[in-house]
Amino acid sequence: MTLRDSSSDKMPSISRRDALLYGLTAAAAGLAAGQAHAQFAAVEWEQRFDAGGMPQLRRSHVPILSQQTLAATEAALQEYTGIEGRGGWPLIPPGPMLKLGSRHPNVEILRQRLAASGDLQATAVGSTTFDSYVEAAVRRFQTRHGLLPSGSVTEATFTALNVPARARRAQLEINAGRLRSLQNPGDRFVMVNIPAASIEAVEGGQVALSHTAVVGKPDRASPLLNVKATEVNFNPFWTVPASIVRKDLIPKMQANPEYLTKNHIRIYDQRGNELQSTQVNWNSNEATNYMFRADPGEVNPLGSVRINIPNKDGVYMHDTPEKGLFGGDERYDSSGCVRVQNVRELVEWLLRRNPGWDRGHIDAAIRSGDRIDVRLAQPVTVHWVYISAWGDPDGTAQFREDIYGRDGLEVAYR
């Protein structure tokens, strides 16, 4: 979603997309009215945006795919069943932007809302002043919902606050069922949680690494997978699939004829002959008949590393030159593949059983600029899962946006 005006003193309205997703009513929420090679079938085009800060990752050493998390999720389900039974929490009406120092009747409603979910002590309700206690409670709420912990009621925070308790209870119930079906993930594995846009590397029943990720857009969703990581490619080429040529490259070339040159992307015909961009009619779909390949380097959309996980969808995990992608509340911006923040740490973990491939060797391989392919001595299981709500063993209930609408809770959100 996009903030209406960051300098405005008004509470941001809920976007039309969020209104449709959550099914909130206007009264309750204040609403204003050609085929490429299969290996590359869902890779993504370069995305560019700026982000102000980094989201807070869940730092528990207990894996999401574990018996402990399942038990904690079932406990959270009982807690939220009780909250629902007590009438849930109030919805916050539209009004001025609420932040530290604000004085407004909506602050009293915000306090009641935060107290109902356990983010603020019940004794702290009854005031219309947004003080440091409310700010801390908002930060806690934001962290539990995978949002930037600004302490102010941003648009994304406002939307999350106004999800009814019955919807949160139902979300926990659905995801407890998902967790029950994922109780044998293996001893050493990587988990990508798509709604949370996060990654865990797990070994011996504990989280060894946690990474922020960028996953597929709603209309280019990252698939659910249970596969093996088999190879790491340093300084990879990127072959552009016909779907991305059609959806992204042709419009970019129409807008800027120098786009391919600027991004070091070469064109080849079916015989392997390199063409010049002036030889292609960009006002048609002629470009889908050719192969487009980005050279290794700083502007390559795959960055310095690709992690191959052979699968029918042709997706994989990789670096990106656009580090700003990892900032912000929403990280659903790829065409199906998963971008990994601090990817070198994950690569080091994956190659731990490959003699000689320590961090120094990995850094040297990247600095060389040469295409280097390394097969994993022991392939590592990779799970791409869809867990949008769960309980942490410390008693914290975690929620993430049902970005692909797979929870089926449209009625519960009303």
Describe the protein's architecture and organization.
Helices cover 28% and strands 19% of the residues. The protein is an alpha+beta fold and 414 residues long. It folds into three domains: 1-33 and 89-163, PGBD-like superfamily/PGBD (Muramoyl-pentapeptide Carboxypeptidase, domain 1, Orthogonal Bundle); 37-86 and 165-237 and 296-414, Beta Barrel (L,D-transpeptidase catalytic domain-like), CATH 2.40.440; 239-294. Strand 9 and strand 10 form a beta hairpin. Helix 3 (67-85) runs antiparallel to helix 7 (165-180). The protein is globular and about 75 Å long. The two termini are 20 Å apart. The model is unreliable at 1-57 (pLDDT under 50).
Q: Could you write a compact summary of the structure shown?
A:
With 414 residues, the chain is an alpha+beta fold.
Q: How is the biggest beta sheet arranged? A: 8 strands, mixed, barrel
The CATH superfamily of the largest domain is identified as L,D-transpeptidase catalytic domain-like
What count of structural domains?
A: 3
- According to CATH, the fold-level topology of the largest domain is L,D-transpeptidase catalytic domain-like
Distance between the termini: 20 Å
Structural class: alpha+beta
- CATH architecture tag of the largest domain: Beta Barrel
Arrangement of strands in the largest sheet = 1-2-3-12-10-9-4-13
Strand content: 15-25%
Question: How would you state the average pLDDT, rounded?
Answer: 86
* Percentage of residues in helical conformation: 25-40%
CATH level-1 class of the largest domain: Mainly Beta
Shape: globular
Counted by DSSP, the helix tally is 11
What is the helix/strand order?
HHHHHHHEEEEEHHEEEEEEEHHEEE
Q: Evaluate the radius of gyration.
A: 23 Å
Query: Poorly predicted ranges (pLDDT <50, ≥5 residues)?
Result: 1-57
Q: State the total count of DSSP E strands.
A: 15
